[in-house]
Amino acid sequence: MTAKSGFTKAFSRVALGTLVSRVLGLVREQVFAHLFGAGMAADAFFAAFRIPNLLRDLFAEGALSSAFVPVFKQDMKEKGNAAAFELAQVCFTVLTIVLAVIIIVGALLSPWLVKVIAFGFGDIPGKAELTTRLTVIMFPFLLLVALAALAMSILNSFDRFGIPAVAPALFNLGSIAAAYFICPYMKEPIVGMALGVLLGGLGQFVIQLPSLHRIGFRFRFKPDFPHEGLHRVGKLMLPMVSGLAAGRVNIFVNTLLASLLAAGSVSYLTYSYRIMHLPLGMIAVGLGTVALPKASEQAANNDRAGIAATFYRSVHLCFFLVFPVAAYFIACGVDVVAILFQHGKFGPEDTLNTYYALNWYSLGLIGFAGVRVTAPVYYALKDAVRPMRYSIISVGVNLAANFLFIPFFNFAGLAAATTMGGLVNFAQLLHTLPRMVPEVSLRRVMSLFLRAVAAAGIVGLAMYLIGKHPWMTGLGDHFKGRLLRLTIQFVIGAGGYFIISYLLGNIPALRSTKRHS
Predict the structure, then answer these.
(1) CB of 382 closer than 8 Å to CB of 70
(2) Whole-number Å distance between alpha carbons of 242 and 233
(3) Count of beta carbons in the 10 Å neighbourhood of residue 229
(4) What is the spatial distance between Cα 244 and Cα 378, in angstroms, rounded to a whole number?
(5) Using alpha carbons only, what angle is made at residue 417 by residues 407 and 26, rounded to the nearest 5 degrees?
(6) DSSP letters spanning 58-108
């Protein structure tokens, strides 16, 4: 098996597993929207979940995974599996101790955290109190998801990508089950959804345990704080945490500003972000997940040409797959939102407001996805300082843009500002990458970028104009009419995009391995 086919096969497994999880995530959001709409309970839940979820990026899928994998792979190569497993045991132990303390402190400080992140809720009787109660319930989710992320990192380092990719589906299943089997029996139904978060987080960790056992890993309680490998992980993780913390501050500010705007603003931004995150998670996060252990192994072997090849494969697939999705959301987004969420208490006005935010997030897919596939190269080379610096700069741009865009676009201005920050972050990472890996050519990356933009732009305009044809609008705004319209636009758009990409020589599967190595 060639390096390219191995990479593509691994990505396919991650993408398929992530697709299952993201589809279930959308089902979860549909169920939630049907039961709670975009009112007070929904705003309270989303704001409350945002607090442990922000820390999750610092201690789970974000900094921890990115810092752990390169060190773990290096120990596997230089010291053997036993030493690498010992490092993992130490990390599991220390992570559990540290997060247990954070959870206790966070629960005690929840009333003040809610006042900071959702200041505007205090003007509505009972809303801040409900948000505080939900925050306390969901705080332990942080530990569960962090342990699940560390388990995922170990399995990915052994080229086991399938089960870790499917694991987040258990989180969504837990939430869906809670909606039907817990919420009806609660005095405040939204509390049942908070309990479902814990149930799902536990399932996300437990499903990976059999796979860990098969590769030979065993849990041992090892509170070895002086462990040399732990210090290397911590040294790499610290700047990542700093950069991510800046981003989390930005999200806190966005939530605070949204809470001061019209009721439902937090929910509109959340629902639109969920839609945007479906392709982002399946494509860009999947590519980054596969690229990090691969590039880390190549870095351990000092194979810079191999790192460049891994990056080219990642960024090419990313551009090729993400850009047409962004064009589809912009051209057909009203029907997409309506199909997914316009049920029960979620009405037509909620659909339009969610679409306004989705438009801006769709443009941001370019930057968000680009960061996901570029940053792993820096982490594999054990350089977390530059990504931290660029993240902080992009957060500054984002915060400034909030106040620039809100007067013009209201709550959608927060999405527009987030998009600008993501684009700035990606541009900075891409600009300095050749200094890290001279084999990477920015001219070549821009060629891939422009060809994907051209193809996506053409088919996006075509899908929009097709949707405005009298026969298409005549299909109506009921579920079947919207679904048929979306299907026609998708088939025409996908076929047109493939043809144009073929003519531009921009289909990854048709490019030889030698040409990319």
Answers:
(1) yes
(2) 14
(3) 21
(4) 15
(5) 110
(6) HHSTTHHHHHHHHHHHHHHHHH-HHHHHHHHHHHHHHHHHHHHHHHHHHHH
- Packing angle of the helix pair 40-59, 189-206 (nearest 10 deg): 20
Using CA atoms, how far apart are residues 403 and 406, in angstroms rounded to an integer? 6
Using DSSP's 3-state secondary structure scheme, residue 367 falls into helix
- The CA-atom distances, in angstroms, between 245 and each of 58, 66, 238, 248, 510 are 7, 15, 10, 5, 41
Q: Of the candidates 372, 3, 375, 317, which has an alpha carbon nearest to the alpha carbon of residue 159?
A: 3
Residue 8 reports pLDDT greater than 80: no
Percent of the chain with pLDDT over 70: 94
C-alpha R_g of the chain: 22
Q: What is the four-CA torsion angle of 114, 117, 121, 123, rounded to 10 degrees? A: 100
Euclidean distance between CA atoms 151 and 153, whole angstroms: 5
Residue partners of 37: CB distance under 8 A and separation at least 6: 267, 344, 345, 346, 347, 350
Structure tokens at 377: 């190269």
Contact criterion met (CB below 8 Å) for 398 and 250: yes
Q: What single-letter amino acid sits at 338?
A: A
Matching residue, tokens 């076929």: 495
Q: What is the pLDDT of residues 312-356, one digit of tens each?
A: 999 999 999 999 999 999 999 999 999 988 888 888 999 999 999
CA pair distance 381, 295, nearest whole angstrom: 8
Joined tokens for residue 324: 């047409």
What pTM was computed for the model? 0.76
Both tokens of 416, joined, read: 């527009």
The secondary element (H helix, E strand) that includes residue 407 is helix 385-409
247 burial via Cβ count (<10 Å: 0-12, 13-18, 19+): buried
Q: What share of the chain is helix, strand, coil (3-state, %, to 5)?
A: 85, 0, 15
User: What is residue 26's DSSP assignment?
Assistant: H
Q: Which residue stretches of 468-503 are H helix?
A: 470-473, 479-503
Residue whose pair of structure tokens reads 């490998």 in the numeric block: 229
pLDDT above 70 (res 245): no
HSE of 81 in the Cβ direction (CA atoms, 13 Å)? 9
pLDDT band at 515 (very low <50, low <70, confident <90, very high): very low
Dihedral of CA 64/384/287/492: which sign?
Answer: positive
What are the sequence ranges of the domains in the chain? 37-246, 261-517
Who's near 279: CB < 8 A, 6+ residues apart? 321, 322, 325, 326, 365, 369
